[in-house]
Amino acid sequence: MVFAWKSAGLTYNRYLAVAARAVRRSLKDEARVVAERRGNMDLRFAKWENGKQGDVKNLGEANDQALAANAESK
């Protein structure tokens, strides 16, 4: 059996991000604001190639861009 997120071409982490966003958006206003604050990511990453560090990117923004690109390709 193949998981639906895997057959859709998503990683597990991206699947969790999409599910969390859907849950946050379904909450009432007061709870949604609190949940959205918890959902903000301040993590950064950089891709290393040939022993050299690439551009440092915000993980939340990179995830949003990847989700948008994935949605456009479907």
Topology:
Layout: H1 4-7, H2 12-26, H3 29-39, E1 44-49, E2 52-58, H4 59-72
Question: Can you describe what's shown?
Answer:
With 74 residues, the chain is α+β, with helices and mostly antiparallel strands. It has two domains: 1-40, no CATH class; 42-73, no CATH class. The protein contains four helices and two strands, in the order H-H-H-E-E-H. The chain has helices at 4-7, 12-26, 29-39, 59-72; strands at residues 44-49, 52-58. A two-stranded antiparallel ribbon has the order 1-2. Helix 2 (12-26) packs antiparallel against helix 3. The chain is globular, with a radius of gyration of 15 Å. The model has no long low-confidence stretch (mean pLDDT 84).
Overall mean pLDDT stands at 84
Low-confidence stretches: none
What letter string, H or E per element, gives the SSE order?
HHHEEH
The amount of helix comes to 55-70%
What is this structure, in a nutshell?
The protein has 74 residues and is an alpha+beta fold.
What attributes does this structure have?
4 helices; globular; two-stranded antiparallel ribbon; alpha+beta; 74 residues
